[in-house]
Amino acid sequence: MIELNPDALSIADAMDKERTSGKVRGPLHGIPILIKDNISTGDKMHTTAGALAIADNLYKEDAFIIKKLREAGAVILGKTNLSEWANFRSTHSTSAWSSRGGQTKCPYILDRNPSGSSAGSGSAASANLCAIAIGTETDGSIVSPSSVNGLVGIKPTVGLWSRTGIIPISKTQDTAGPMTRTVKDAAILLGALASQDSADSYTAASNGKIAADYTKFLDVNGLQGKRIGVEKSALKINPAMDVLFQKAVDTLQSKGATIVMVELFKELKPIDGNEFQVLLYEFKDGLNKYLSTANSKVKTLADVIAFNKQNEAAAMPFFKQETLELANEKGDLNSKEYLDAVKTTTEIPRNAIDKILKDNNLDAIVAPTNGFACCIDLVNGDYDNGFSFSGPAAMAGYPHITIPMGFAYNLPVGLSFISSAYKEADIIRLGYAFEQATQHRTSPEFRVDLLG
Length: 452
Prior knowledge:
The chain is an alpha/beta fold. It has a single domain, classed as Amidase signature (AS) domain (Amidase signature (AS) enzymes). The protein contains 14 helices and 13 strands. The strands form two sheets. Strands 1-3-2-6-8-7-12-13-11-9-10 form an eleven-stranded mixed β-sheet, sandwiched between helices. Strands 4-5 form a two-stranded antiparallel sheet. Helix 8 crosses helix 11 and helix 8 (274-293) packs across helix 12 (336-359). This is Amidase. Residues 4-426 form the Amidase domain. InterPro entries: Amidase_dom, AS_sf.
């Protein structure tokens, strides 16, 4: 937690009174929820992306999805910690740490990193501090912390949920999404907040593609007769992961799915470092626009950089801000470097995913979501945990769901299903069938280390 909502109890009382009087707004009526601290609220809570630089930001109005939450009767308990600036500050950062909120821990083993950037949402939902939580993702920031915290996470198609009022990194890749303990809860939350928003042009493409209720796709027999592509490179990650993934593939097959080996990552090699270049440009553009309307003394990315330098001991005690500085050096979104890079990072993964799905008549592609949770290391920063499947769907802007796949060393890890644009119904159906067949999730025990 980074901040509690001082109005939570009064909101809960009001929702109870409505229910007692016979008014029920829907499945979110009175449900306690936590939201990531880069999602603006027009109330008494600050919106800071975990940064001391804008710790004074009491935003003027709710983000679009927060308005939808309030209309649905949800009780916002507070804001969750995150990797500062959604982990877009330094190449040597430690996930789940922010200068405002400190270090978040994995509830399964407390010396492990809960991953990010939606670390607090992942830890809180997993540890039962709320019924459901919301995270945001640019590349991996919903599905990765969901995976290592034993949760179901959905990164929707970019445009299914509005981004208005969310502190941005990338207009082409950013989206918020559900982080919950069950597929059913994720489906309920997904449908409640999916809507077109005139202030976010990307949502226009969702017209006619939004399901009012995604729970109607919860089918225990949802794998029967389906064709699932298995990412071949994910079959050999490490011995513990390999056993879990092979068992997952066997389960898919036993429940009626046909398995087809595919090699998606081979098709993505021309992207190289283009994604990072896109994010640098879009972060500068988007953050400057957000800060210009924020209720903070800091009004630009350059101001953030200057604040951090002036307050280095508090703002940058473990790692610096070279990513912020690189972004600030970029030009505008008319730059040739940006236009070339964004074309590469969107078209190649979209074409690759669509081609594999079409050529093999597939309903989805699966792989482990990521490796097991890393150790918290504020000295050296994050290290490679062996695998990540977030990139293809993130760059394409396509939907991605992760479902608990099992445990090794008392650490959970997820199984990912991805598909083409606005195919949330398809991957929810598949994910639910896998969840119900396996029931892998167990509550965390807050172990001190691997040995207990």
